[in-house]
Amino acid sequence: xxxxxxxxxxxxxxxxxxxxxxxxxxxxxxxxxxxxxxxxxxxxxxxxxxxxxxxxxxxxxxxxxxxxxxxxxxxxxxxxxxxxxxxxxxxxxxxxxxxxxxxxxxxxxxxxxxxxx
Length: 117
Known about the structure:
Elements: E1 8-12, E2 20-25, E3 31-37, E4 40-45, E5 59-60, E6 66-67, E7 74-75, E8 82-84, E9 93-94, E10 96-99, E11 102-105
Antiparallel strand pairs: 1-11, 2-3, 3-4, 4-9, 5-6, 6-7, 7-8, 10-11
């Protein structure tokens, strides 16, 4: 049954701040940043593509972008695309599902960045 993805529980929805960020870990040890906004619930790798600072320590801006607090790089959490420098490489993104209040994340990225090996 190849091709079937088993989503992993990483949090409860009530634990993810509304209009906020939360760091989580996949069972394989990969750190992800959950982003909850009026635009949806997203998961991206938890390291800025500029200097690898944890994005979960960053800020969710009113326009829905995720800002790294170290140097101000900004990203679209839906696509991982950089919106403002100094970062120019996209983040890896992960598919997210919500089931009975559980936040479930695919164990492998749906898009990748140069940081994922």
